[in-house]
Amino acid sequence: MSERTEAIKRKLQELFAGETQVFPVTVKEVNEDEFTCSVLFDDELEYTDVRLRSVIDSAKQGFCFIPKVGSRIMVGRIANSEQLFVALFSEVDKVLLTSGSLELTIDQDKLELKKGEAILKQTEAGFTMIRSGEGLKKILEDLITAITQLTVPTGVGPSGMPINAAAFTAIKNRIGNLMEG
């Protein structure tokens, strides 16, 4: 560490000695596996393992904001130690909630809810509903395809295709506008 960095660190320790401290920093990187981030104070002094949740334990569950790299956040010192936690955010990349087998993820691209094998997701392209690898869109499209190919036995042989098959095909296309996956 440079002499200037050491001087800044000493000044901070003197300034904050015996007090609860909260100060602004810039997010350098985020570790979503450990729910921590590295931050820079005054573009020079780096703090690592800053907590995004109350404990650094990837097995724990709960609620967590993931800050955007390069954004400004406020961090607080834990009991006058060198351990820090994120107190306030200016920009958030992702929001996570885990509880048992329930997982909720919200980011700029999607909103996704998982519970066991069931997934409900919304993106700009539409909604996805999947359970055990089977998607609602595919089921509905298969249903419409089967209806358009429907024939009925009659006394003189099988009937022809439904006369409104084009209407069913139009409905199938509308499903694609609403749903993905």
Describe this structure in words.
The structure is a single chain. With 181 residues, the protein is an alpha+beta fold. It has two domains: 3-108, OB fold (Dihydrolipoamide Acetyltransferase, E2P); 127-178. Helix content is 23%, strand content 44%. The chain has three helices and 14 strands. It has helices spanning 3-16, 136-148, 165-178, and strands at 22-31, 36-41, 45-51, 62-67, 72-77, 84-89, 92-99, 102-107, 110-115, 118-123, 126-131, 134-135, 153-154, 157-158. The strands form three sheets. Strands 4-7-8-9-10-11-12 form a seven-stranded antiparallel sheet. Strands 3-2-1-5-6 form a five-stranded antiparallel sheet. Strands 13-14 form a two-stranded antiparallel sheet. The longest helix is centred in the N-terminal third of the chain and has 14 residues, at 3-16. The chain is rod-shaped, with a radius of gyration of 27 Å. The two termini are 51 Å apart. 9% of the residues are buried. The mean pLDDT is 88.
CATH topology description of the largest domain: OB fold (Dihydrolipoamide Acetyltransferase, E2P)
Please indicate the count of domains: 2
- Which second-level CATH architecture of the largest domain applies? Beta Barrel
**How much helicity do the residues have?**
10-25%
Q: What is the approximate shape?
A: rod-shaped
Radius of gyration from the CA trace? 27 Å
Low-pLDDT segments, ≥5 res: none
Strand content: 35-45%
By DSSP, the count of extended strands is 14
Category from helices, strands and their pairing? alpha+beta
